[in-house]
Write a structure and sequence with these properties.
heterotrimer; A alpha+beta (551); B alpha/beta (171); C alpha+beta (105); A: 551 residues; alpha+beta; Sulfite Reductase Hemoprotein, domain 2; Sulfite Reductase Hemoprotein, domain 1; five-stranded antiparallel sheet; C: 105 residues
Chain lengths: 551, 171, 105
């Protein structure tokens, strides 16, 4: 069986092969001393290769988070052969290896090309990996499948001649469902695919100047998507600021011009452009759509009685079902989230053995398909309910059955100062402390949906601005402090969190969060009033007071 | 700002890989035009003076200049130098595409400044046809850039057809 | 006093300079890094910046009298010297060198 996903044709294979030859030549020139580090750095970054605190890090693109079991197995192989036996799934739905050798990077890229993957445009001031809903094509609340559009954008943005030296990096996200699981309002461009066309949001983002995207267009026909994006990017490329790295994202341009004026310039550019030269024809869009049919859903009769009995017999299984499955468009299927947030381990990490098991269960129970979510978990989009217990048992054997999806211990966490040379503070040890404090399953279930997001610096890779509770690591004279934000959310009611009071030392953070959570449990009107609802009802100040009261 | 290959003397090379002499003279804003033309005017000066001038000129366009303002004068402009003061400033790529694709400009579009072997592929696609390149072997740099990728995914200012066009004529 | 650190070009691993102005070697064990006088450290940094086929991104870590990085640099250099502090990294640097963490206080 093979996953229902985009498959390379000869053109795509040739592209990656040519790119790898070019990069191998660049690496060879660097190793021999023909080019300097200054010359090489922008070239290696264009291939996702960073020099971090301890070693080189290679970030591999997982286009819109869709993976086959074969690709996951290749990741396991690379982790074992070229790295220290594990990898880290990122908020861009990508995978990064933390300990690769420069001299071996071309070999790794060759291995990836065998499974139709590469590391292009995972860094640099270009259009990055387009992200989307991890339940695309499966979710019950979906009205348009975003994957063919994401693939259309992937190809258009690959090696784009005009947009490879933008003022700053550029991120696009697409959703096609009622619930926004792709955080489109905090992307440079956010797209909402609807039957009547796309809503286009521009100028969202996090980092030093967080902002929510503005809707500048509704009902944009899909066959005009690329030319409209090209107009958006051209206005940004020409007029985005280049004098200050912190003011170079498109959100600053849109704020400076005002969304109406930005839109006017885009529309003018769009009207003048030879759109037919940019927009792929309907036949190509149809070809892309043809790669994303439903899998051949298993016809087995679903034994509801046995399913209920298994849950009654095994409380842990029942809890996992409740927390880690998402409604599927078919009644006899669900989407399963494999949590990469076990208590006390680095969020988003998976060992090679775990990757192999995830590939195996995808083959056995999930039509060979997996997804990476921006929450740094792995998804099996289509699983027959009759297979859930067998699936659960196999995951449980390798510590992949943590039943905490959407809960307080399912945190988004950047690598922080343990790996990243840009970070000001560590993120992962703090996440480990928090997850240990809320380890108790009953307590965590009682708290319900609560999203904590942690970044180790202002670049906000850990999305702290849109956490219900956001945590930002700062450095004060060599000592780590953590500022706490309250009230952010990345969904269809997107809002930015607000910093409350002074930064706290790491050891004070878990207790402060526990005080906030206890207050929430006291204040909520019912079990179904979520943390974010209560916070919005009673106001941030009440909770800010609890955060900062003496322990 | 990194300056790859900057130790090499810049040479003028065409899109076909021929190294050619540069017959143009860049005029400072207070220089008068004499016998030793042809001349390249600054962008501001071109906007001020081209309306009243006869003959053919070159114009140097800096990254922040809005090339669309040259549209009324294009018949008098036979060379447009697009300046890349730094490798990472990509505004000149848009400038070239606007000239070629929006205006159908058929004069010379030349890249000058921090122009390096690794940018040439993109510049060729955006419609540049001359390059002042800093490289030990500019001819080889151009020919290898032109042949680097069999597959392109976008329509641009060159004659390469995007993958989608090839897919649907082959089918 | 200063330490000289860099990453090895070929594998990117963190390296520490052991030796004098005249002669020395690079090793992966931070505990063996030489405490260099400011003048020697500055001269060595300039010299090694030119040897780019050996090491990448060399820089100096200023030390207090107690031999730890000055406070401004402390957390970063502690992590750099001892490896990630979070487990699951097959070999923590300190244990790989069979010693305790350095810059502990």
């Amino acid at each position: 069986m093979s996953a229902t996903m985009y498959k390379y044709d000869d053109f795509d294979h040739a592209f990656v092969r040519d790119r790898n030859i070019e990069f191998a030549d660049q690496v060879a020139r660097r190793l021999s001393g023909e080019i300097t580090e200054d010359q090489f750095k922008p070239l290696r970054l264009m291939n996702g290769l960073y020099l971090q605190l301890h070693a080189y890090m290679l970030r591999i693109a997982v286009p819109y988070g869709v993976l086959s079991s074969r690709q996951m197995r290749k990741f396991a192989h690379i982790a074992r052969t070229y790295d220290r036996d594990f990898g880290h799934f990122t908020t861009r739905q990508n995978l990064q290896f933390n300990w690769v050798k420069l001299a071996e990077a071309p070999k790794i890229l060759e291995e990836l090309a065998e499974v139709e993957m590469h590391a292009l445009q995972t860094s640099g001031n270009c259009i990055r990996n387009t992200t989307t809903d991890q339940f695309a094509g499966a979710a019950r609340d979906e009205h348009s499948d975003p994957r063919p559009w994401a693939e259309l954008i992937r190809q258009w943005s690959s090696n784009h001649p005009e947009f490879t030296f933008l003022p700053r990096k550029f991120k696009i996200a697409i959703t096609g469902a009622q619930k926004d699981r792709a955080a489109i309002r905090v992307h440079d461009i956010g797209l909402h695919a609807k039957p009547e066309g796309f809503d286009v949001y521009v100028g969202g983002g996090m980092g030093r100047t967080p902002s929510l995207g503005h809707c500048i267009r509704t009902g944009l026909p899909g066959e005009k998507l690329l030319s409209y994006l090209e107009a958006c990017l051209r206005v940004y490329n020409r007029y985005g600021r280049r004098d200050n790295i912190y003011k170079a994202r498109i959100k600053i341009l849109v704020a400076a011009l005002g969304p109406d004026e930005y839109k006017r310039q885009v529309e003018e550019e769009w009207a003048r452009m030879d759109q037919a030269k940019v927009d792929a024809p309907v036949a190509e869009i149809d070809r892309l759509k043809s790669f994303f049919p439903d899998p051949e859903f298993k016809a087995a009769a679903f034994d509801r009685v046995a399913y209920q009995r298994a849950q009654t017999a095994d409380a842990a299984f029942a809890r996992w079902i409740k927390n880690n499955t998402n409604p599927h468009k078919r009644d006899d299927h669900v989407s399963v989230t494999i949590s990469l947030k076990p208590v006390g381990l680095p969020p988003g990490d998976a060992s090679s053995a775990q990757m192999d098991v995830m590939a195996d269960v995808a083959d056995a129970f999930a039509y060979s398909e997996l997804r990476v979510s921006h929450e740094q978990n792995i998804i099996l989009p289509h699983v027959h309910k009759g297979d859930l217990y067998a699936l659960y048992s196999q995951l449980d054997a390798v510590n992949l059955s943590t039943a905490n999806v959407g809960k307080i211990t399912d945190m988004i966490v950047c690598p922080g100062l343990d790996y990243c040379s840009l970070a000001n503070a560590r993120s992962i040890p703090l996440a480990q402390d928090i997850s240990q404090r809320f380890e108790d399953a009953q307590l965590s279930d009682q708290i319900g949906d609560l999203q904590i997001k942690i970044s180790g610096c202002i670049n906000a890779c850990g999305h702290h601005h849109v956490g219900h509770i956001g945590i930002l690591g700062v450095d004060k004279q060599g000592i780590e402090f953590y500022q706490i934000l309250l009230g952010g959310r990345a969904d269809e009611k997107a809002a930015l969190g607000v910093i409350t009071g002074k930064g706290l030392p790491a050891e004070a953070v878990p207790a402060a969060i526990e005080r906030v959570v206890r207050l929430y449990l006291d204040l909520r009107t019912s079990d179904s009033e979520r943390f974010i609802d209560t916070l919005e009802r009673v106001g941030r100040e009440t909770f800010a007071g609890a955060l900062h009261e003496p322990a | 700002m990194s300056q790859p290959n900057s130790t090499h003397t810049p040479q003028l090379v065409t899109r076909d890989g021929a190294v050619i002499p540069d017959g143009w003279t860049l005029l400072a804003d207070d220089d008068t035009t004499g016998a030793d033309g042809p001349f390249i005017l600054s962008f501001e000066r071109a906007l001020r003076e081209l309306d009243g001038r006869n003959g053919h000129y070159g114009v140097r366009v800096l990254p922040a200049d809005d090339v669309r303002l040259l549209e009324p004068f294009l018949e008098k402009i036979t060379l447009i130098e697009v300046a890349f003061p730094g490798y990472r400033d990509g505004r000149g790529y848009s400038t070239a595409r606007i000239l070629r694709e929006d205006f159908g400009y058929t004069g010379i579009v030349r890249a000058v400044g921090d122009v390096l072997r690794d940018q040439l592929f993109y510049m060729l696609r955006c419609g540049f046809d001359e390059f002042v390149v800093k490289d030990k072997d500019p001819s080889q740099a151009i020919t290898s850039a032109a042949q680097r990728f069999q597959t392109v995914y976008q329509g641009a200012a060159d004659s390469n057809r995007p993958a989608w066009a090839k897919r649907h004529t082959l089918a | 006093m200063k330490l000289l650190t860099a990453n090895r070009l070929t594998d990117g691993l963190t390296l520490w300079y052991t030796g004098t102005l005249e002669t020395g070697t690079w090793g992966e064990d931070a505990a063996r890094a030489s405490r260099l006088s400011d003048d020697d450290a500055d001269a060595l940094l300039i010299a090694w910046k030119l040897r780019e086929t050996d090491v990448v991104a060399p820089y100096l870590i200023p030390l207090t009298d107690a031999g730890t990085p000055v406070q401004r640099e402390h957390v970063r250099e502690f992590v750099r010297a001892n490896g990630p502090t979070i487990g699951q990294t097959a070999d923590a640097i300190a244990s790989a060198h069979n010693r305790a963490d350095i810059f502990e206080n």
